[in-house]
Amino acid sequence: MSSAVGHHEALLRPLLRSVATLTATTNAAMVAAKGSSLAPSSALSASFSTCAASSGVVSSAPAASSSSSSSASSSSSSSSSKPNKPSSIVRAAVCSELKAPLTLSADYSPAGHPLVAKISPEKRVRIGIRACGVNFADTLMVEGLYQVKPPLPFVPGAEIAGIVLETGSAVKSVKIGDHVIALLDGGGFATECIAHEAQVYALPKTIAFGQAAALPVSYGTAITALSYRAQTKPGETVLITAAAGGVGLASIELAKRVLGAKVIACAGGAEKLAVCQAKGADHVIDYNKESIKDRVKEITNGKGVNVVIEVVGGDTFDQCLRSLAPEGRLVVIGFASGSIPSIPANLTLVKNIAVLGLYWGGYQAFNPSVLRNSIKDVIKHCEAGHISPVVSATYPLDQVNDAFALLRTRKSTGKVVVTMNE
Questions:
Q1: Section 133-147 average pLDDT
Q2: Rounded distance, CA 113 to CA 155, Å?
């Protein structure tokens, strides 16, 4: 990973990998009313009409306003037998020029997204989006600095929460009116999207849309790191770097409240350390002022930690590696410092320790069940009250550029979310 990228932008890469190679598909799929490749929503209606004729869209519902999600649920029973047209206006934050602010469009067609054509019509799910989480990958993509470079114009955004408006005939896991989260191949900063059923997860209506949009990437990564890769056991001690960030806070909660581990949180500055303590960290280390290695030795009485969730790289990685107890496990998630460290192989031998990599999004390509199970697990834990995502800032869609600007400062704690309030 390049030093400019950090760790968050890598998490979603395989989900977006094929966008850059689909320019031809984009040109064929985007229908323009006025010569624009961002077509009006009549194209979406036509898309689902075709589905109904050829492979059977069995139900649809009108888009609900974000201020009354319950009305969308109650309307599903009356609308399921007679298809309804989608909302006449689908708004979206569009990247028409790299390194320029996103512009708000009122004639976006989700059916024109380049990857929708790849989704079998009977497996499509049309969703009225209520919230979309902002990831660092989004900010890089609109600047042309991300590994995947979609053809212009495009709508960024990958993790969304909303309400099912329409389903294909073979969709079984969700129905009209269901609240859902979805991990998209872009197109999340809009009021509607079309996803494959495999990208969509049923969401209990007790979980607010803003919180739900903060779950997939941060918590999915954290639970996979702790449970699947590190095999964390109750009573073990877990050291977490960049602990005030999205993945860090998720790791604190899951390690402490779900896995029964002890937590040492590392962050820079008193304000961020206070956030970590509020989430349940047993000990905190300000790595702007303190040596991680020395403090861990002090806290653990020289025994070291059993697990490290490492996001920073550079000297932080080296100190964490040397803080492991015998048979300890260090999970590398990213290199937010921009410095990719070298691993002293002799240290792994002498202490019988393991260094494990985690590219969470990579499981989509070769073992998607790991990714899907992680999202299902965090939804379950959120519903049970074991975890509560920190949403540090919420912006309406027309202020999406402000949301991106905040994330670029790297001063936010937890998650930044954009809501699609009408």
A1: 89
A2: 8
What are 111-134's pLDDT values in tens digits? 988 889 899 999 999 999 999 999
| Burial of 55 from C-beta contacts in 10 A (0-12 / 13-18 / 19+) | middle
264 torsion bin: left (phi>0), alpha (psi -120 to 50), beta (else): beta
Q: Helix, strand, or coil here: 280?
A: coil
Alpha-helix residue ranges (DSSP H) falling in 134-238: 136-141, 209-212, 216-223
**Tokens linked to 8:** 């968050």
Q: How far apart are CA 123 and CA 58, in angstroms?
A: 11
Q: Count CA within 13 A, CB hemisphere, residue 297.
A: 8
Cβ atoms within 10 A of the Cβ of 278, count?
Answer: 11
In 3D space, the residue among 311, 275, 271 whose CA is nearest the CA of residue 389 turns out to be 275
Which ranges constitute the DSSP H helices of 245-329?
246-253, 270-278, 292-299, 314-321
Q: Supply the Cα-derived Rg of the chain in whole angstroms.
A: 22
Residue 104, both tokens:
């708000």
Cα–Cα distances (Å) from 377 to 69, 222, 321, 362, in that order, read 24, 11, 29, 18
User: E strands along 20-174, which residues?
Assistant: 57-60, 92-94, 103-105, 124-134, 159-168
Q: Give 422's pLDDT tier (boundaries 50, 70, 90).
A: low
Contact 193, 156 (CB under 8 A): no
Enumerate residues 6+ apart whose C-beta is below 8 A from 34.
Answer: none
Query: How far apart, in whole angstroms, are the C-alpha atoms of residue 263 and residue 4?
Result: 29
CB atoms within 10 A of CB 385: 9
Contact indicator for 72, 26 with CB cutoff of 8 Å: no
For the stretch 306-349, pLDDT in tens is 999 999 999 999 999 999 999 999 999 988 777 788 888 889 99
Buried b (16+ CB within 10 A) or exposed e, 159-169: bbbbbbbbbbb
Helix spans in 285-362 (H): 292-299, 314-321, 345-351
Domains of the chain: 90-214+390-419 (3.90.180.10), 218-363 (3.90.180.10)
Separation of alpha carbons 406 and 286, rounded Å: 23
Lookup: tokens for 77: 């029973």
pLDDT at 88: 58
